Amino acid sequence: MPGLILARYGEIGLKGKNRRLFEGKLIERMHAALAGLSVQGIRREYGRIYVHLNGDGEEACRRLTRVFGLVAVSPAVSTDLDLGAIKTAAEASLAEAYAAGARTFKVDTRRPNKAFPLTSPEVNRALGAHLLQRFPDLSVDVHRPAVTLHVELRDRSYLYWRSLPGPGGLPLGVSGRAVLLLSGGIDSPVAGWMIMKRGVEIVAVYFHSFPFTSDRAKEKVIDLCRVLARYSGKVKLYVIPFTAIQKALHQGGPDELETILLRRMMMRIARRVAEREGAAALVTGESVGQVASQTLPSLAATGAVVDLPLLRPLIALDKEEIIARAKAIGTFDISIRPYADCCTVFVPRHPETHPCLERVEAAEAGLVAESLLQEAVAKAEILEVDSTQEGSWET
User: Fold this and answer.
1) What DSSP string runs through 216-228?
2) 101, 107, 120, 346: which sits with the fewest CB atoms below 10 Å from its CB?
3) Predicted confidence band at 389 (pLDDT cuts at 50, 70, 90)?
4) Residue 375: partners with Cβ closer than 8 Å, 6 or more residues away
């Protein structure tokens, strides 16, 4: 593979005077993703970022497809702005596509450098004719080609025929930090991924109700963080001992409100973690109408207990959409491991779907002492889950 990767971003191009700030953060994230590989340098130009490597091209491309902010990466070759050199590079590039099975092609030239003596259509025709001579089995198909040879004429010429999609969005860190309430289920890891895609760093909080939930359930959440860390480089995880609080709620609260009361306690604890971590919002995997605790009245009662913005990236997605995203980012197979989380313990037989806030507040009055909340945060196990651990950068 060539020692050059051409990376393209999307939304960042709309940032006006802040564009260079976003580009700088994006390059910072790209350096982090490529740590350990032989990178000669990363250079930016208007709308493009060039990564120069000594080998490791396939691995570098794979890692860059997980960098938020990038919409595509392409292994590329570069030559001087000389038509003969460009023809030679085009021939080498198309030979790769031919070996991969392509039998039709077209050439698509862009000419930001207007000093180049040929127009884009003239370059297309010149390269097309040359390639047809060199590859008699190939034919041109301008409508549905098996492969498109892209040629960009800038300070030099850049050629590529293969593009790998990136996640898009904004570079991680440009939108601040938030606390993600992370269970072992399908939804919350997807919510974490989606909010990271908007440039938000996450600190994860998991509520562990041992022995009602097993250490395997905790390991499952750590594995989910490990997958998310492939996109962020590292995820900080608070494992909150939640058994005492959950037992107090179960023994003293109305059965039908137990789930609402449970989630309000989670919010209170997550709020305290946010304060400790300098986070400006909370993130959940809730979706309207999915379960009893996710009706609009239930969501209102749950959110009423915190004064930070409560972000719900999945709020309008149905289950199939969430599952599809979970499979795409690699969390689904972990989420369906059969280990219960605290939300499946002490489930009410007839949960309230239209809770009255005044009744909820009355029910929880004096139910859980302040000392229990403080103790839960103070005794949290804090882990740094890094993508370089087991499973690093694997698909």
Assistant:
1) HHHHHHHHHHHHH
2) 101
3) low
4) 241, 244
Task: Say whether pLDDT at 388 is over 90.
Answer: no
Q: Residue 345 has what pLDDT? A: 66
List the beta strands (DSSP E) in 192-336: 201-208, 234-241, 282-283, 310-311
Does a cis peptide bond (omega within 30 degrees of 0) precede residue 189? no
pLDDT of 115 over the 90 cut: yes
Cβ burial of 294 (10 Å; 0-12, 13-18, 19+) is buried
- Helical H segments across 14-159, by residue range: 19-33, 57-64, 83-99, 120-134
Using CA of residue 56, residue 58, residue 62, residue 67, what is the dihedral sign?
Answer: positive
Give the burial string for 318-339 (b: 16+ CB within 10 Å, else e). Answer: eeeebbebbeebbbbebbeeee
- Whether the CB-CB separation of 148 and 104 falls below 8 Å is answered with no
Task: Give the distance from CA 273 to its chain's centroid.
Answer: 22
Name the residue with tokens 């313990």. 345
Q: 201 and 55 in contact (C-beta within 8 Å)?
A: no
Closest CA to 245 of 349, 359, 362, 342: 342
Please name every residue paired with 181 in a beta bridge, in sequence order, or none if there are none: 205
Residue at token pair 């939640």: 242
Could you tell me if 282 and 238 are in contact, meaning their C-beta atoms sit under 8 angstroms apart? no
Q: Whole-angstrom Cα distance, residue 357 to residue 237?
A: 31
Mean pLDDT for 261-268 is 94
Query: How far apart, in Å, do the first and last CA atoms of the chain sit?
Result: 20
What tokens does 233 get?
């480089």
d(CA 217, CA 234): 20
Residue 178 near residue 208, CB atoms below 8 Å? no
Least confident of 131-140, 163-172, 203-212, 247-256: 247-256
Are 206 and 218 within 8 A, CB to CB? yes
Dist CA 16 CA 392 (whole Å): 35
Strands of 310-311's sheet, edge to edge?
310-311, 282-283, 177-181, 201-208, 234-241, 381-386
pLDDT digits (tens, 9 = 90+) for 58-82: 999 999 999 999 999 999 999 999 9
